[in-house]
Batch of 4 targets.
Target 1
Amino acid sequence: MKNLLIFCFVLLTCSACQRVLLKAYGIEQPQLESYHSLKSFLDDYAIESEEIYVFKDTTTFNQFLKKGVSLPDANFFNKNKYFVDYKTKNSSCNGEVGGFIEQLGNIDLLPNDSQIRLDGLVDGLVNAETNKDFSYEKKAPADAYIVIYWAKYLGKLNKTKILDWETKLRSINPSETKVRLIKVNVDFQDFWGIDEKDIPVFDY
């Protein structure tokens, strides 16, 4: 559990990331969360809550964070489950996600990285409600996969970003492009067996 104190957590929302704005968006110190607290939060913001995935333990959680995390954010994968980067050169802004979603019909024509595969990411995920490992079998194969990362402590940023992304996804004709949405929560989970005191204090 001490490993929770040894990582670099990067919160990036483009140039708008200033202390006053973060507080205005309701961003707060992370707390221990459960399936019920996460679902209730999503429901309050009218964000789809059918499937909520979380990291299965502190080890997989820390491995993810050490990659350098921008929240909220999204990763895209083509039908072969190869990573496709939505960001333009020298950009770290999630403001490009919405526009990229509108181009998902052409995702197989875009450059991809076969060394980064969706399988490697979902291997560390479990369903927050059932605690069962992630499975592709619940839904048919897709033409594109989008993994959205969100956290309850980000407050209204979830509504302004994720709700907008979901709205754009719903506008895609499924008969033309089948998209699988995988929503990953990046909060600290109570079933990991940690205490509130184990959560690092973030200075916003």
Target 2
Amino acid sequence: MDRRWAPEKIEQTVDRRHVIGVRLIPAAHDGDTSSVSGREASGVTFGEGARRLRGVSMNKLPSLISAVIGSALDRAARDAGPSDLVWGLLAALRRIRMVVSVQAGYGAASGVDDAIHAVFVERALALFGTPEALHTSLPVKGPAVGRVSAILEDVAMSCLTLNAYFPGNSAMMLAVSTLTERMLDVLGAVPDWALVVRELRITDSDEEEVAASDSRWSAPALH
């Protein structure tokens, strides 16, 4: 794993009830938290992040992933509309899919598609009692979609970093299901799968070049 992006420090911001955020700090900071916001710095900072992560039991992983994504969504939702959040969550899922495609190939990326589709089917069954329910279109992109997408793509990469410290690809698959569930929550419906999978598979040449050359993408996050 590229040392620049190894979780040398994991900062956990907690309130009286639960963890509300986890932020991976690049190793280059090495103790310097000057770039950390006041709210984040008021939390509890745990050093030696990798060793701490290995001590986290599997039964706590779902709450950890949920906290990481929930904190990012809270930040992204500021001055953003529901449509921005839907597209931002979709961008995060696309980022995970692309990393999987770069590291493990098309077949593994299709497995990510299947995991997302399974959440769609489960939600349709819960809402309508059938997976063949009437599906809605994706909303029109709002003015804050770029900022929201950047925040949520970043948390997707953080989840992939976490994935390296847990068996199998459990952290990644939890991130995929959680991001998908949040997207459906915001949308309040089940979108047309054909539209969603088309968006998941859209990449341009610049993005593919970044995926192939950037060590953050090529560092082994998968098992």
Target 3
Amino acid sequence: MKLHLLFSSIALLCVNCLCATASDKGKCCFTGGLDWGYSLTSNVYRHHNFDSPLGGRVDIKDSHLNPDSNGYLSANAGVKFLDKYSFVLNGGYYGLQSDRRVMVASAKALFYFKGYQYDSALMFLEAGRGFSSCMPGKGIFVGRLGGGYQIELSTWMRLQLTASLQFTSDHPASFYDGVSKTTIAPPELRRSDCYYAAVNIGIGLNF
């Protein structure tokens, strides 16, 4: 239902865009782009609660710095409106750790301090869901908060330099217990949470 309302709202914005042109200041217009960059996963927190094969309930909480270099690549499409705002749907391939990769579908809202047609500082908020065969579980959430600067390359192309903080959560369907040397899965696995914090530096082309 929520997705239905989201896409309905975007459809209404797109209909309004048909009556405007990209060169008219402050008017609604279509936008698209590509983003790629470097991601440094800096902190990992895990919480597992399970019935051990050796007997008893085990509760493990672990938080540690675990620097891991990754990358991301994504494409987006959406609308710009009211001179300083844009809203896009984003799809891409994100790395979390060396053994964890996710496909992400997200929504991203951007604000341009001087306007989306000009050289301008910007800020953005992004949130979405991740999908991965190597990370089966109850669902993956990905969120980003960041900013950057946009440089006008031509009347139809702009370069965006960005930096952001990223938060990711997932709930693995299984957990390997090093003590019992056993892979724990439901119903013995009662809680399985993993959280990742990362710093991203990126570059993008916006049309």
Target 4
Amino acid sequence: MSDTPSTPDVDSGSVSVAEVIDERKHALDSIEERRRWPRSVLGETATLRALSGAEIPARPVDNLSEGGLHLTAPIGFGMAVGQRYEVLLGQPDTGNDPLAGEVCYATVVRTRIVLDSSGDGDRLGVGMCFDAPIAL
């Protein structure tokens, strides 16, 4: 007997392709439900500093919540799941950003390659979880 988990045999007709797709959609839905805070698009930026001192210049934040953020960065900064960063939110020099100067720490929890479709070059989508919730 094998220790490898069995997978549905789609070709034999025992499981329909639609059932496999539904199962995968359900799995993705359950991932979404793990988020504890609603996400907002606030037009914020974030500058990331690795604990080693390397800095990733200000990037637009795709979405932000009390528990984390998602942004897209150029490939080449070496960002990977598990890395920790100091996150500087907002742009202090504008004077009208309520989160300007907010500093927190976050860990990369998800990355995804974003292929170029607009001429900007391939990028890396990065999901980060804050060590402690921030007030929005």
